[in-house]
Amino acid sequence: MSYLFATADERQQMLQRIGVESLKTLLDQIPAGLQLQQPLDLPQSLTELELEQHLRGLAAQNIGASARACFMGGGAYDHYIPSVVDEVTSRGEFYTAYTPYQAEASQGTLQAFFEFQSLIAELTGLDVANSSLYEGGSGVVEAVLMAMRCTGRMERVVILGSINPEYVETLRTYFLDKTAQVVLVPAPTGTVNVAELETLVDDQTACVVVQQPNFFGCLESVEAIGQVAHRSGALLITSFDPLSLGILKRPGDLGADIAVAEGQSLGIPLQFGGPYLGILACRQQFVRKMPGRLIGQTVDQNGQRCFFLNLQAREQHIRRAGAMSNICTNQGLMALRAAVYLSLIGPQGLREVSELCCRKAHYAADRLNQIEGCELVFAAPFFKEFVIKYRDGANVAIRKAAAADIDIGPALSRFSDLDWISQDERDQYLLIAVTESRTKDEIDRLVAALSDH
After folding, report:
1. Which residue of 14, 170, 320, 363 is most buried, as measured by CB atoms within 10 A?
2. DSSP labels for 329-389?
3. Could you give the CA distance from residue 135 to residue 275 in angstroms, rounded to a whole number?
4. How remote is the C-alpha of 95 from its chain's centroid?
């Protein structure tokens, strides 16, 4: 048996039925000495996140236990996941659902995907979103291939050097058997010089790809970059952090034609590297060049709302050799988690999460920048992630943090596509990411660990 609290209207109906004006009038019949006196002497209430942090702290006091803190970045982050996300998505009808080939028998699954698409379109400020791709890296590649189809330009793609180097590596792998040139624009100050970018974009360029915030956590001049792309007839592709949009402008508002993202931060745990979630949205005029699948809404013969597979670009359907993508399915369960998360926190919650990430990251950066032999590398504005230079070496910093039960990194030396940074400096550079899940005590613990020379 389950119990739900009565609403204010229901309580008033019950009071009227028994002929009592108010709940206080009803309770006044109880002798004063037996009534619970207000206000109660209770500690201040905690949010779900604060309560979990408190319980983890208590558990860490057990012998042999540890309270690890994750400050790792580079594309996967330790964000807080409300417990209701796990509760809803673990239901059998969602957890075991597969690709909805038969629309008439898959209305619940189709509606879940439709809601996900609607949420992503609103989040990005673009007209339409598909029902998810595999993950962020292949999402960038699919967006580039889509831009080439939309523009008819197959020879040149310009990518900012501040984008996640793993995304660049994925793109180069896809392009091994293609003649298209991939031009990488260096970002020595943490962001790309727009004037230099303009010299590299010509009338053969299919698209310009920018990440916001970029791989180093810095904020790019996306509107100016978009103007450079559009003046040459190229499309602007923006790879974005979904949780940054609580305080930053949406990709559509910045002039993006196609927006892609890694959706792991939307209620998906780190879970050893996957599965994750690829997000893709675009403007209406490009919808028929979109990879993956699109769920539509209509009415049946009885006038009832229903859902169906609207557009499918996969090779197993009628397109066959003319398919635009080899995306054969979608990350349905991960897309559902993202939809539940976004529906739960809403616009205000999204803003609060963004503000917490930003404030805590800047507090951590300020504290770390005061350590002798440790400095903030880039002066550009940043959101939740930043690069530090550790005099003794990035790997030394990682080991010191690990000894204090803290995970940081990655070290930039592991990425070959950042070869425009000298090897000596790359050996000292590493990423630090601070999410809303991190506490002031954990940040101070990190500072203490790296202060030990």
Report:
1. 170
2. S--HHHHHHHHHHHHHHHHHHHHHHHHHHHHHHHHHHHHHTTSTTEEE---S-BSSEEEEE
3. 8
4. 22
Whether CATH 3.90.1150.10 fits 49-80+346-451: yes
DSSP-derived secondary structure letter, 284 = G
Cβ neighbour number for residue 13 with a 10 Å cutoff: 11
Instruction: Return the number of other C-beta atoms located less than 10 Å from residue 278's C-beta.
Output: 28
What CA–CA distance (Å, rounded) separates 78 from 262? Answer: 14
Tens digits of per-residue pLDDT, 198-208?
Answer: 999 999 999 99
> Degrees (nearest 5) of the Cα angle 141, 143, 146?
110
Neighbours of 312 (CB within 10 A): 15
Write down the pTM of the prediction: 0.87
Tokens found for residue 332: 């349905």
**What's the average model confidence in pLDDT over 49-64?**
81
Give the tens place of pLDDT for each residue, 383-393.
999 999 999 99
Q: Do 426 and 420 meet the contact criterion of CB atoms below 8 Å apart? A: no
Name beta bridge partners: 280: 260
The residues spanned by each domain of the chain are 49-80+346-451, 83-342
Q: What's the pLDDT at 1?
A: 42
> What region does 375 belong to: left with phi over 0, alpha with psi -120 to 50, or beta?
beta
Q: Locate 107 and state its tokens.
A: 């209305």
Exposure of 231 by Cβ count < 10 A (0-12 exposed, 13-18 middle, 19+ buried)? exposed
Position 411: which residue type? A
> Domain 83-342 falls in which CATH fold?
Aspartate Aminotransferase; domain 2 (3.40.640)
- At 46, the pLDDT band (50, 70, 90 cuts) reads confident
